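Quick entry, no commentary yet.
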Amino acid sequence: MREQDQSRVVDAVVIGRNEGERLLACLRSLQGQVRRVVYVDSGSADGSQAAAAALGAEVVVLDAGEPFTAARARNAGLRALTADPPGFVQFTDGDCEVQPGWIATALAAFDEHPRAVVVCGRRRERIPEASVYNRLADREWDTPPGPALACGGDALMRHAAVAAVGGYRATLIAGEEPELCLRLRRAGGEVWRIPAEMTLHDAAMTRFAQWWRRSRRAGHAFAEGAALHGAPPERHWVAETRRALLWGAVLPLAVVLAGLAHPAGWLLALLWPAQVVRLARRGGLEWAFFTVLGKFAEAQGALGYYLDRLRGRQRGLIEYK
């Protein structure tokens, strides 16, 4: 009976850096849903560590001597669970609030899908009306339920399955969850997204520069993910990388060269508005415009990754908050 009960135990790993009140809301939302909470802090200077401890969380502070990454923080949380491992671990970012009943709903989904090793649900932006950038993030989270290739930073996972593949790839500065899910699927597991409310996320993106940095980080993740797992059969993020480079780097260069060669060459620039019109038919003008514009930032991130790789340098975090 003890073994069966232990297999249903859920612990949580929360990661954060200077999240303030958002972190407190996150930790409170987990109370009563999990057995224990491990909070991993990446160099906060706002009292997050003491505040988390006061709410009953076990606090792990990352050594500042190594680069901070979300993946490294989540691995530190996993190590803190080793002595008394749970059956499941809920990973949550410190700027997210877990919805009431989510854990029970996700556990029921594991019962329904025995091969599942990851279950995730609907993450929503807390204040999507605050800015166009928040609205875009809320739309990004709205993916269809069913078998999935990956999850985001919030998900319930089988602890043993994650431990068996070595946890997260600690050096990734972005895109660590899809990379982990790829390895979990290779090991025979399944990722399921269910139609249930999971978390409220506070992107707090109110400035163009924030959105640009976030998009640049995505481009970096695409390029690094493709470099790691771009071979068949997965072709991980190869198409995303190619689209970013085509629309955000190759086409600008082609427009300039063609325009310098002949005035009519500048007409190549009409390909961008044409692409906006094409995408708008599918998802609306606002989404289409920022999707096309974002390719410039993604290309910047991808090219930055390649340049760092040539220099033998590891890029630090690209933070947008």
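second:
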Amino acid sequence: MEHIEEKYILQARELWPELEWITDAKLKEQTTLTWALALQKSVLTPGDLNSIPFTLLCGPDLKVTFMDHKRAVVHIARDAGHKMNDFFKNDLPVDMDVLIAGAILADVGKLLEYEIKDGKSVQGSYGKYLRHPFSGVSLAEMCGVPPAVCHIIATHAGEGNMVKRSTEAYVVHHADFMTFEPFRERLKI
């Protein structure tokens, strides 16, 4: 793995207070380092992430920021995972650390997919060839993130419709799409 500057590690921790929900210290560090590596490789800054729209698919009228959406997905996935464990813990257990790390990392590849042009976020040249599920897995693997979490990154978007998703991947996928599809539908009107 390439050297990651400390300032990016600090930025990742500041962007993601939810990292503290991961109880496995090694997984928490791997998740943090993945975000730090993405920040180091990206043209986007934490300020950009707190101001750009979370998707390019809803047009210029979308005001929900990348970080607002991402943090909502993590919170919804965590709440759903807890409820699933309350009701189905013996039949369909959810690994909460894997779920939370996967939700935090699901869109980390967008830091390589997006660029800023004329003050607006656009799909960059890298993103035209590799969508964020692919680049996200690549970043995560460079930081030693385990396969169960990389699976969530790989399958959270439409690309995941071609493979069998884990329980944790289903939760993140649905948390992501339930906070995306209504915006897309509303903005079509």
